[in-house]
Amino acid sequence: MLIRETLEAWEREYLSPYAKLSEESKGRLREEEPCDIRPVFQRDRDRIIHSKSFRRLKDKTQVFLSPEGDHYRTRLTHTLEVSQNARTLAKALQLNEELVEAIALGHDLGHTPFGHAGERALNRVNPNGFDHAKQSVRTVDVLEKNGQGLNLTYEVRDGILNHQTSGMPETLEGKVVRFSDKIAYIHHDMDDAIRAGILTEADVPREIGDVIGYTCGERLDHFIHDIVTASIGLNDVKMSEPVDKAMKDLRQFMFEHVYQNPIAKSEEGKAEALMETLYDYFLKNFDKIPDDLKALEKKGDTRETIVCDYVGAMTDRYAISVYEEIYIPKIWVG
What is the pLDDT of residue 255? Predict the structure, then answer.
């Protein structure tokens, strides 16, 4: 028996009847020979980890633009924390841990430089709009490997597409990642805001703290335990009503005090202007786009979409470097 088949047999015996088994995947965009060692979702996880778009996450903003300090989160560390939360939940609920890990590691591959500021800018200037979840799927389907894509399974792509509040994944594993993303950013954005001196633990309203705790660690632990308790044995992933309400109230508190804080967000206007400027420049100078992206025009993609592919994939540092190369005059040395 192949190693893969042994692992698939283990899934049938051990996982919840509501879990998505690797052997029951709806398949890939293009058929390919199965791996003799890895089930399909493990193979997807490996492809994501080895992708260029995954490596670029290390230099993309989570909340604070170019923070001075080594301990603030980036889009990569956010992704890893989402993955860890999701794996903990999946293991406790006997769901497919490799599927949740693949979805979690891939969910933000299409995110722009400068966090949601970059996303807002591209959504504003592109007539077709811009959404990072859809762009993440486009990244794995089309943009990776010089236009070949990663050819991931349907279930991973569905989970990536529907990881936001507005989405609803088809699998319980996708729902786990959807919750894990919210838990992660509420947890670590609060931690970063405290580190930055924008908030203190005492600022959290008592009606929230009494339900889910007064420290970042207490809240994270409470969220995880509540989801496990509320979901175990069910064909669903959910929170209890009191904890769900407290999480939504805390999220609103974070929007008011961090995500819209004029100190924390003082540079976002500049970031949005930079993104809009780069978009306009490359739309007018389309010949400067890399050849593998320009080739997408022959496959039916608009120039607006391709420019978003290029500018949206940049890291914070590279976007600034490109802007300076185009618009900032260099000192002449005779």
Answer: 85
pLDDT in tens, 303-334: 999 999 999 999 999 999 999 999 998 876 66
Question: Using CB atoms within 10 A of its CB, is residue 283 exposed (0-12), middle (13-18) or buried (19+)?
Answer: middle
- How far is it, in rounded angstroms, from Cα 9 to Cα 7? 5
Which pLDDT score is estimated for 98?
Answer: 98
Q: Would you call 153 helix, strand, or coil by DSSP?
A: strand
Q: What are phi and psi of 157, to 5 degrees?
A: -65, -40
Q: Say how far apart CA 213 and CA 99 lie, in whole Å.
A: 30
User: What's the Cα-to-Cα distance from 225 to each of 24, 133, 153, 178, rounded to whole Å?
Assistant: 29, 27, 30, 16
CB 315 within 8 A of CB 290: no
Distance CA 223, CA 219 (A): 6
Residue 22 identity: S
Residue 2 confidence (pLDDT) above 70:
yes
pTM above 0.90?
yes
What pLDDT does 268 receive? Answer: 84
Of residues 248, 244, 245, 227, the one with CA closest to residue 236? 227
Six-digit token pair at 26? 């709806």
pLDDT reported for residue 65 = 59
What's the count of helices (H) and strands (E) in the chain, helices before strands? 17, 0
CB 90 within 8 A of CB 174: no
Cα–Cα distance, 42 to 100 (Å, whole number): 10
Locus of tokens 């009606």: 207
Amino acid (one-letter) located at 263: I
Q: What is the pLDDT of residue 64?
A: 60
281: Cβ contacts below 8 Å, ≥ 6 apart:
326
Q: How many CA atoms lie within 13 A of 44 on its CB side?
A: 31
